Amino acid sequence: MKPYYPMMVDLQDRACIVIGGGEVAKRKIASLLQANAAVTMLSPQAVPELEKLVEERKITWKKRVYTEGDLQGYFLVVVATDNRQVNEMIYQDVNHQIQLVNVVDSPELCSFIVPASFNRGHLQIAVATFGASPGLSRSIKKQLEHQFGEEYARYTDFLAEMRSWIFQQNVEPKLRRQLFDLLVTEDYQQRAMDGEVEAIKQEIVRMISNSSPKIQVKNT
């Protein structure tokens, strides 16, 4: 198995192409749209759900078979046809110096893989086995979905709000780090999930106010 470097990629408005119009392509396109990518689908046919995305102008459809040169101008390439020979041909056409490519179900033809993942607000959890067992990745993902419920969406929204507000204050780096660490302790996490958001905010205000007479705390 190839070693992979785990990272998050910003696909906002980046040109991405998915070759294929079936169920696999549908899943790949859905995840790209969640990342706000600019998605083009290349396929002579498409399942109804993808046709609907075209009608809603959420994706662009090139309604034909692949030909050499179709990858030009795209940052990310997903190959999702059911023809291995065609998939390998497309892989050979990729400019590997500047393009990322994922050939579905062919780890040896991928410069990136897509882990099993889910979101809870600002929290994203991903699981990968480097292609050894996608089934195990999905199984662990389901376990984690139960462990990290929807309450984490509210909690991470709160953390994002507090992080932004604390950075706006005239707080020395050491205290700022202490506050960030405090907000993710088990006690504060549970309190935030129980709805004690305003009480926590006021505690943080007092901590900052008491840290130095020179610090001026802005209103939350």
Could you characterize the architecture of this molecule?
The chain is an alpha/beta fold and 220 residues long. The chain folds into 3 domains: 1-113, NAD(P)-binding Rossmann-like Domain (Rossmann fold), CATH 3.40.50.720; 115-149; 151-211. The protein has 8 helices and 7 strands, in the order E-H-E-H-E-E-H-E-E-E-H-H-H-H-H. The strands form 2 sheets. Strands 3-2-1-4-5 form a 5-stranded parallel beta sheet, sandwiched between helices. Helix 2 (48-55) links the parallel strand 2 (38-42) and strand 3. The relative contact order is 0.09. The model is unreliable at 213-220 (pLDDT under 50).
What's this entry about, in short?
It contains eight helices and seven strands, in the order βαβαββαβββααααα. The protein is α/β, with parallel strands linked by helices and 220 residues long. The C terminus is likely disordered.
Mean pLDDT: 92
Structural class designation: alpha/beta
**Structural shape:** elongated
The CATH superfamily of the largest domain turns out to be NAD(P)-binding Rossmann-like Domain
Ranges where pLDDT stays below 50 over 5 or more residues in a row are: 213-220
Task: Identify the strand order in the major beta sheet.
Answer: 3-2-1-4-5
Main pleated sheet: 5 strands, parallel
Name the CATH architecture of the largest domain: 3-Layer(aba) Sandwich
- Span between termini: 50 Å
Helix content: 40-55%
In the CATH hierarchy, what is the class of the largest domain?
A: Alpha Beta
Structural domain tally: 3
H/E element order:
EHEHEEHEEEHHHHH
Quickly count the helices. 8
CATH topology of the largest domain: Rossmann fold
- Rg, Å, rounded: 23 Å
